[in-house]
Amino acid sequence: VSVPGDPFRPYFEAVLRGILRSSFSAVVVVNSHGSVEPLLKEIGFKLVLEQFESGVASPRPILVLNVYDCAAKAGALFQQAI
């Protein structure tokens, strides 16, 4: 099933906003579908920028990673093949 970007964008933004209402100090999104990576980064950047523009004392970062770009480093860190 493929969901076009236009309906997915507000859904993903709502999910991130919900997480930002919690006490987490940062958000890390690990993606394994390369085609949506630009959309994920766009929304993450938008929400971090909103924090800066609103004057929040400690803006919380939103990091979007592609699992294939970080699998080897994660495997080495946890001493497991990923």
Could you walk me through the main structural features you see in this protein, from its secondary elements to its overall organization?
The chain has helices spanning 5-20, 37-54, 67-77, and strands spanning 27-31, 62-66. With 82 residues, the chain is an alpha+beta fold. Strands 1-2 form a two-stranded parallel ribbon. The radius of gyration is 14 Å and the shape is globular. The two termini are 26 Å apart. The model has no long low-confidence stretch (mean pLDDT 91).
Q: Main attributes?
A:
single chain; alpha+beta; two-stranded parallel sheet; 55% helix
Quick overview:
Helices cover 55% and strands 12% of the residues. It is an alpha+beta fold. Helix 2 links the parallel strand 1 and strand 2.
